[in-house]
Design brief:
The structure is a single chain. The protein is α+β, with helices and mostly antiparallel strands. The protein has a domain of about 180 residues: Cysteine proteinases (Cathepsin B, Chain A), CATH 3.90.70.10. The chain is built from 7 helices and 9 strands, in the order H-H-E-H-H-H-E-H-E-E-E-E-E-E-H-E. A hairpin with a 2-residue loop joins strand 7 and strand 8. Helix 3 packs across helix 4.
Length: about 290
């Protein structure tokens, strides 16, 4: 084992000595030929000459090689559905209060004055002049009565004598119906309208509007009956014994208040309607001109 180690050491010494000799020889060579040293240190790059290619004539003008643009696809971004901005609702308005019932459940006219009739059969004239006074037109009862035309047809004029007793029917002393009374009131400048078939609600509406209404009933707003009658002019109509007029001045849910000459009193709605319907709900109303 010791011999092998000594042999390795001898070989190593030999190799080191040999390398030293090589370095001494190389140094001597370079020292004697300095160009070789410059060539090694300053080596030039080799130049390779390529053969020249001369292009031949061409009929096609030079065009650049078309290039396809490169499309770069952007990565798809996640899409978000557009959100709608809620539209604010208009402020809620309170519903308007319900319109009051018309005609109202009750109404009355207090500033109307009546007077006793001056003749046995002058109730229509008495009612007419008291009604006219309410609308600021002064007329005397006798004046009005004597200005009514005379006729055996109560739809045209006064039938009979206003001095006679009541309870009779034409052609005997009787009285007068609504249209001749309204016509004479119009001559005094009042917009009076004589009509038949006025409903109870229409009557109430007049009173609620502050306009009293002359109505044709049976005396005392009592029960009665109608008779068919044909006047000498050929006109047919219905007449009633004890025909009478009053002025309606108020009502409530169960009754109607009337002015009968100088007396005011009430009757149940049912009783009033029975008396009023005998002559077909006849009335004179104040009908102002339309605007």
């Amino acid at each position: 084992m010791a011999d092998k180690r000594k042999a390795g050491e001898v070989i190593a010494i030999f190799l080191v000595g040999l390398a030293g000799i090589a370095v001494i020889v190389l140094g001597f060579v370079l020292n004697s030929n300095p160009r070789l040293l410059s060539g090694i240190l300053m080596a030039q790059p080799a130049v390779v000459e390529l053969p020249k290619i001369t292009p031949g004539p061409s009929n096609t003008p030079f065009q650049p090689i078309p290039t396809t643009p490169r499309v770069v696809m952007a990565a798809a971004l996640p899409t978000t559905a557009p959100t709608e901005t809620p539209t604010p609702l208009p402020p809620t308005e309170a519903p308007p209060p319900p319109a009051p019932a018309w005609p109202p459940a009750s109404a009355s006219i207090s500033n109307i004055v009546g007077y006793p009739q001056g003749y046995a059969l002058s109730c229509e004239s008495r009612s007419a002049v008291d009604w006219a006074r309410y609308f600021s037109v002064e007329i005397g009862e006798t004046e009005f009565l004597t200005r009514l035309p005379l006729s055996d047809n109560p739809e045209v004029g006064f039938v009979g004598s206003y001095y006679d007793y009541g309870g009779m029917v034409p052609p005997y002393s009787y009285g007068v119906h609504a249209e001749p009374v309204a016509k004479l009131l119009r001559e005094y400048g009042l917009p009076a309208s004589g009509l038949k078939g006025l409903s109870l609600d229409e009557l109430r509406a007049e009173i609620a509007s502050g306009r009293p209404v002359i109505v044709w009933v049976i005396f005392g707003v009592s029960n009665g009956y109608a008779l068919d009658y044909t006047a000498s002019d050929g006109q047919s109509m219905q007449v009633a014994p004890n025909e009478h007029t009053v002025i309606v001045i108020g009502y409530d849910e169960s009754s109607i208040t009337v002015l009968d000459g100088a007396w005011a009193y009430s009757r149940s709605i049912e009783q009033f309607e029975r008396s009023w319907e005998v002559l077909g709900n006849m009335a004179v109303i104040y009908q102002p001109p339309a605007n």
